Amino acid sequence: DESVLDAATAINKTIEGWITQHPEQWFWPHRRWTKDV
What we know:
Helices cover 54% and strands 0% of the residues. It contains 1 helix and no strands. The radius of gyration is 13 Å and the shape is flat.
């Protein structure tokens, strides 16, 4: 559904902005993707 994609994109852009502004505060402790592409 396009509205779900739009919402997910907006959320990811918001998080990306936070990480870009404060990269020293970002830590991802687990593997994000379960498979290698």
